[in-house]
Amino acid sequence: MTDKALRLGTRRSKLAMSQSGQVAEAVHRVTGRPVELVEITTYGDTSREHLAQIGGTGVFVTALRDALARGEVDFAVHSLKDLPTAQPEELVLAAVPVREDPRDVIVARDALKFTDLPRGARIGTGAPRRMAQLNAYARAHGLDMETVPIRGNVDTRIRYVQDGELDAVVLAAAGLNRIGRIDEVTDFLSVDTVLPAPGQGALAIECAADDADLIAALGELDDPFTRVAVTAERSLLAALEAGCSAPVGALADLPPLSAPLERGDPHADEQFVKEMRLRGVVATIDGTRMVQLSTTGPVPQTHDQAWALGRELATEMLAQGAAGLMGERAH
After folding, report:
1. Is 119 labeled as catalytic in the residue annotation?
2. Could you read off the pLDDT tens digit of each residue along the chain, which spans 331 residues?
3. Which end of the chain, N or C, is surrounded by fewer C-beta atoms within 10 Å?
4. 81 is a catalytic site residue
5. Is residue 40 within 8 Å of residue 46, measured between CB atoms?
């Protein structure tokens, strides 16, 4: 390895720059090499269309991967939930660092909790997955609320609430944590209410498959449990033939640890845990129909074991009619 600066490709959004900056510091620590951020504008950042219309969150990934392929950057950092499930042969997922809090949160007016929102509350989100589950929850509990499709960065979304256009917006806890705005959250949504997107809260560090030295260096940042968890979640998504923007939620976690981890208990320690639980949900956007299942098995030790766990749960969900709830399936 030389002392030449490593070039990290990142989107230009405040969140992307923040999480890429944190990865850059970690890579510098393990390699001793300087790391410079290379800002790349993606079509998803400039288009005003709703994400579902322009191919889902995968549009954020394409420009970064193109820059990698052209040799303009040495590695790239993605929000893992944005990655399409098919991995290009010329690129490798060199590291999946320790996952942030995977939950969704709300930022509501008057510091309201989710269950205290008034009748007819308007809740903004850009994700069909969140809309579907919120609408299903409202139906199941006799709540009167409206989900409103929105786009934009964190500032834009929170401003909808501050300006009185919406009563609340739904965001990812991980993103707010990474940009230092978690104190603006008025409520954390239980994963029993809204399952997160597959891979939510995790980052993906990608580089060229033929750069063995860099793969080894980046591999120092890999967290084996996070990797098998998100692999199982993404396997479920792939087996459902659903794209990143489909109304699919999934979470692989360690049942005995999940409650203390959600409470932020620093003593929650995974070394004694032998089982992993994988939960999946598919619902129609209006929340009228839903398939929600879970399975528990030994913590996977390999990529193939994790992939098999996701595929098995997806097969059960498809048998219960999940395919018919997703609208257009990805191919």
Report:
1. no
2. 567 899 999 988 888 999 999 999 999 999 999 999 999 976 545 545 544 444 455 677 888 999 999 999 999 999 999 898 888 999 999 999 999 999 999 999 999 999 999 999 999 998 999 999 999 999 999 889 999 999 888 999 999 999 999 999 999 999 999 999 999 999 999 999 999 999 999 999 999 999 999 999 999 999 999 999 999 999 999 999 876 667 899 999 987 655 555 555 555 554 567 889 999 999 999 999 999 999 999 999 999 999 999 999 999 999 998 888 776 444 3
3. C
4. yes
5. no
Active site residue 130: yes
Told to judge if 274 belongs to the known catalytic residues of this protein, a careful annotator would answer: no
The catalytically annotated residue of 11, 65, 99, 129 is 129
Report the interhelical angle of 303-319 vs 224-239 (nearest 10°). Answer: 30
Considering 101, 178, 207, 244, which one is annotated as catalytic? 244
Indicate the burial class of 152 (C-beta count within 10 angstroms; 0-12, 13-18, 19 or more): middle
Helix (H, G, I), strand (E, B) or coil at 10: strand
Per the annotation, the verdict on 207 as an active-site residue is no
Is the Cβ–Cβ distance between 249 and 197 less than 8 Å? yes
Told to judge if 7 belongs to the known catalytic residues of this protein, a careful annotator would answer no
Q: Looking at 65, 99, 157, 178, which residue is catalytic? A: 157
Q: Which of 11, 81, 103, 227 is catalytic?
A: 81
